[in-house]
Each structure stands twice: as structure tokens, then as C-alpha cells.
Recover the amino acids of this structure.
């Protein structure tokens, strides 16, 4: 990512305020191409469906579409964003556990893919299919099976439950419902489980083909891939060293082996979010106060833990000196502007720092933007600084943005 200097920070703060995000869209593009290449060199029919919920900055989502990737959405809002960005409906996958029939009907009629998560979802799809007998209704089924990771996911239909059989039987018997995809979600990001994901899905594919005469075009292994990160962050998260190849060798490797002699092999889809965007954003905020309370030093900044969305870990931190007076701090907590006791961005900081210095927190592109509420202060701007250019991709929110839906 671009290096920062006191001059650059002062220039940015004079234009955008004392708290803002820095986006490196070129880094996102590089991550995307590296991950896709890693899978395709093992199994060529692989594509990415980017997880909008992880970070739905339109500038990022547009990169995915331009590179030929899909949009993976879980809400009406995200579906509308994909539509506004001119993402083709057939390149949009709608996941999520709650869907309204009136919302998914126009989407599915235009060619979008809905992955059903429950029997109730399927009933809605059947109703839509009955009203639109002249339309082909493409759907996917979210499948839940054990991969031995010690976690029972709440998403998908248990493949050993009678509901799964009823869904597949009904699909096979309904002329205009087409099972395009089998999808699964798993909670653990460890690459060690990705061969089990893949082999479980491949076993299921063979079963569906054998028992119901259906050959899905897509086999979707979901998300849960860790992306590039500094060693100090990886060690705090308890992760072994890894690369994209650690995931692809296991998952794409299993697909390549399984379909080695097959002429009409299915597409392998993955739904990364964090793997692509986590290291593409930094959060910048200013030191406002330094004080000692009963022997404990607190450094207060005009940002919040919610801006970086990390708890119980210390993110990568860079200090940009803008002050002449420094204090030597030992085991200091860097805390936020909110009135929440646990609003802590960095614990046990050791070093020299002064009021007016700027702190730059790295690896905060995952869920930080989408989960940051306008608590106490409106949300901050986002500036893309790729290639040395400065482009505002989201302005700072104002009072009117927050309160326009209230009756004042």
C-alpha cells in the first residue's frame, strides 16, 4: 500500500477531516486476480462471487463485475446495489436466511439465482414458479453437512433430513424449476477444512445426480477464506502461515481429481469477502487526549473500535507524527470517542506519542464499513489513494443523513 507521510496526512485531513478511511482499490484488484488465478490453475472452471456484505463500497463491487466475477448478496439493499451497478441478474447470487416472496420474485424472473435456505424459502419459490409457468426459475439449495470442524452452522438444509429429499424431489417433478447450484456455508476459515468442504460437496453432487437425475451447473463452497495479513495479526488470531494456494490446492485439487475425465464438469464457485478486501483499507484518526487514571494511561482518539471492527486483537498500527510534544507511554490503551467502556482500538501500547499525531490502523477493510453504526458521530469519508491519485468514494455523513428518516 502507498506509504504515508506527515505531509500527506495533513493534506488529507485538511480536505476530509481528522478521521477517514483510506482505500487501495488496486490492492483489491491484485488480491482478486491472485485468488482466482490460484484456483483456476488447479481447476479452470472456477469463479468468484464477491461477498457484498463484507464491504459493499460500490467502487470495489464494480471492480468485481469488470473482472467477470459475480455478486453474492443477502438482502434487498445489496441486490438493489448490484442492479444499480448494472451487474447482470444471472451474475447475482442471493443467499441469506430470510427472504420475502415479493422481493425475490422480480429478481428471480429476471434470471437471478436464489439459494434457498429452508423449506419456507422453497415454498415461496414454488409459488413464484406456479405464477410464472412460462419462465425458467433458476435456484440453488444451501446444503448443511458435517465436515468435522466442531461447529454446527445454522445455514442451509440438512442433507440427511427428509426436507432435503422433499425439496429435490419437488424440483425434479417441476418443469420450470431448475436446480442450478448446490451451495454450502461453513463457519471456520482454516484452510485445513477446505478439502473436506470440497469432498463433501462432490459426494453430494454425485448423490443428487444418481438419486434425482439432476446435474447442477455450479457447486458453491461459500466463503471463509483468510486473506493476506501481517504476521503479528495472524499470530494473534492463532493462524498458521498460509497463502491462497493452501485453499485452492485442497478445494480445487479435489474438484480437478473428481472431474478429471468429465467433459461437462460443473463450475466451482467461492464467495470470498475478507480474503479480498481486509488489507485494502486503513483507518486514520487523530490523538485528542492523553491522561493517566490510577496508573493506567489512556490515549483517546477521534475514532472508535467500531471503525476497525477488531476485538481482542491489536491491528497493525502506524503513527504519523504531527506534534512537537511527545509522551513516552507504557502499556497504554488507545481508546475511542464513544461513551462505551470497552471502546478500545489497541491495548497495551508502548511508544512515544503526542496529541495531534495521527494513527493509521491497517487491515480494517473487512466488515468495518458495513457494520459501523452512526453512534454518537456520523460515519467518516472514504478516500481511494491507489496509484498516488486521491479520489473521494464516499463523503462524510452529515446530521441530515442520519435524521432524515425521523419525524423532527
Amino acid at each position: 500500500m502507498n506509504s504515508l507521510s506527515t505531509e500527506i496526512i495533513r493534506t488529507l485531513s485538511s480536505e476530509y477531516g481528522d478521521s477517514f478511511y483510506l482505500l487501495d482499490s488496486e490492492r483489491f484488484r491484485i488480491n482478486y486476480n491472485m485468488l482466482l488465478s490460484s484456483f483456476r490453475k488447479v481447476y479452470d472452471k472456477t469463479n468468484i462471487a464477491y461477498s457484498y456484505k463484507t464491504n459493499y463500497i460500490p467502487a470495489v463491487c464494480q471492480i468485481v463485475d469488470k473482472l467477470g466475477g459475480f455478486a453474492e448478496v443477502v438482502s434487498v439493499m445489496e441486490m438493489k446495489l448490484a442492479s444499480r451497478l448494472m451487474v447482470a441478474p444471472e451474475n447475482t447470487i442471493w443467499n441469506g436466511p430470510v427472504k420475502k416472496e415479493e422481493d425475490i420474485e422480480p429478481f428471480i424472473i429476471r434470471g437471478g439465482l436464489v439459494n434457498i435456505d429452508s423449506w419456507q424459502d422453497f415454498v415461496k419459490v414454488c409459488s413464484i414458479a406456479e405464477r410464472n409457468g412460462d419462465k425458467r426459475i433458476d435456484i440453488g439449495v444451501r446444503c448443511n453437512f458435517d465436515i468435522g470442524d466442531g461447529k454446527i452452522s445454522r445455514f442451509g438444509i440438512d442433507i440427511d433430513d427428509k426436507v432435503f429429499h422433499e425439496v429435490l424431489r419437488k424440483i425434479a417433478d417441476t418443469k420450470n424449476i431448475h436446480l442450478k447450484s448446490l451451495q454450502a456455508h461453513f463457519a471456520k476459515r482454516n484452510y485445513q477444512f477446505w478439502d473436506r468442504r470440497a469432498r463433501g460437496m462432490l459426494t453430494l453432487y454425485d448423490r443428487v445426480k444418481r438419486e434425482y437425475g439432476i446435474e447442477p451447473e455450479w457447486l458453491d463452497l461459500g466463503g471463509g477464506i483468510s486473506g493476506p495479513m501481517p504476521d503479528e495479526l495472524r499470530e494473534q488470531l492463532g493462524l498458521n502461515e498460509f497463502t491462497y494456494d493452501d485453499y485452492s490446492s485442497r478445494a480445487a485439487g479435489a474438484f480437478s481429481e473428481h472431474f478429471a475425465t468429465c467433459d461437462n464438469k460443473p463450475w466451482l464457485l467461492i464467495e470470498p469477502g475478507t480474503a479480498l478486501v481486509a488489507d485494502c483499507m486503513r483507518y486514520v484518526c487523530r490523538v485528542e487526549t492523553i491522561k493517566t487514571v490510577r496508573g493506567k494511561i489512556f490515549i483517546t482518539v477521534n475514532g472508535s473500535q467500531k471503525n476497525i471492527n477488531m476485538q481482542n486483537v491489536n491491528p497493525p498500527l502506524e503513527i504519523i507524527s504531527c506534534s512537537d510534544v511527545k509522551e513516552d507511554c507504557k502499556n497504554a490503551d488507545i481508546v475511542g470517542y464513544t461513551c462505551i467502556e470497552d471502546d478500545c482500538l489497541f491495548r497495551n501500547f508502548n511508544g512515544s506519542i503526542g496529541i495531534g499525531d495521527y494513527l493509521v490502523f491497517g487491515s480494517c477493510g473487512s466488515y468495518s464499513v458495513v457494520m459501523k453504526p452512526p453512534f454518537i458521530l456520523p460515519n467518516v469519508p472514504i478516500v481511494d489513494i491507489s496509484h498516488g491519485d486521491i479520489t473521494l468514494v464516499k463523503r462524510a455523513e452529515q446530521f441530515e443523513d442520519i435524521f432524515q428518516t425521523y419525524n423532527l
About this structure: Residues 129 and 137 are 6 Å apart (CA to CA).
